Amino acid sequence: MTATCNLFFLDKSILLLGILFVDIVLSRSNPIINNDFRFKQSIVVRVDISMSTGKLASQVGHAAVSAAEKARKNKWRWWNIWIKEGQMKVVLKVNSSTELESLCKKAKKLDLPCEQIIDRGLTEIPPGTITCIGIGPAPVVTVDRVTGDLTLL
What we know:
This protein has 153 residues and is α+β, with helices and mostly antiparallel strands. It folds into two domains: 2-31; 37-152, Bit1. It contains six helices and five strands, in the order ααβααβαββαβ. Strands 3-4-1-2-5 form a five-stranded mixed sheet, with helices on both faces. Helix 3 (53-74) packs across helix 4.
């Protein structure tokens, strides 16, 4: 009986060491722990139009989902890594629709997923208003070539 208990404790120790080893290895390669993201998504919002906090949040959500769906369909590898890394995203600001359109053109030239969000005008803003864009998910270095100079919202 004592031998069985010792064997049980030995097995438990090995199990705990195995769990500790896996935890250490994962913490080195897990971007959520070490902030070493390779892919990200940028949402760029116009601040020259008046939107309530709720409206702004819904527009950002539309941009995030629309651009992610485009990436899932056209850049599946990028999307898959981004999902596994924890879906890093940043929300940035610009002062006009012209700036948004320019950023989207630049993103498309670099073959990045980019989606413009055009409001239907059902609540706060006129129909056809471009409110924001979603760029990526895509490699951080490439996304930063388009949005790296912008400031956080």
